[in-house]
Amino acid sequence: MQTERWVSQHGYCLACDSDVLRPTPPNTPARDFECPVCAHPYELKASSKAFGSRIVDGAYGSMMARIHENTTATFLLMHYSEVWQPVTLMSVHRSLVLPEMIEQRKPLALTARRAGWIGCNILLNQVPPEGRIALIRQSAPVRKKFAREQFQKVERLASTSVQSRGWTAALLTRLHRFGSAQFTLAQVYAFEGEMSSLFPDNQHVREKLRQQLQVLRKAGFLRFLSRGHYELVNKHSV
Questions:
Q1: Coil, helix or strand at residue 60
Q2: Which domains does the chain carry?
Q3: What does the pLDDT average to over 94-105?
Q4: pTM beyond cutoff 0.85
């Protein structure tokens, strides 16, 4: 396919300094490219239309298993033109593709060839902006150094558990609701009800929110300004 050929010729690894991505063998599940240096996996999704809030993916059970096994690939989302050139190219860091962002589709009808098969959608609008890293905007490439720096910041979360990353992503997404980059701990506590609904097994939500602020600060997404006051670094939307 033309889009896969383009990535083979122009793609590069975000996880290391390799300027080459190698196609995987045909029928390799859930990954289209790998870095020949660090083996970081990538899965390409290409469309002639701009991506919306949902991305159609494969089997629901397989996707959930990959998330819990930490074997998910980083997604490359390419919106291409009539002449097969990328208009936008965005990566979705695999560390922030989490169970809360996977939507189960209805089973296929009994009359379908794969009757009962259950697919899934990735809820792109639930992925924090920090996890959606632009490589090409309006047909113009983003500097590799900048894209890699943004990717590496998210990579710092990769060593934490899936559950912990779920909290991190949920809080980070909500911090972007504020009109200003600066916010207070009191504003964060206003999310207590939402977070309790998302994570009903946790009975100490405020403590967990404070812990996640420290996680985000350590990863470089937040600055501590003064007691109870914080600032989002590079507040942006995608």
A1: helix
A2: 2-54+61-98+121-149 (3.40.210.30), 162-232 (1.10.10.10)
A3: 94
A4: yes
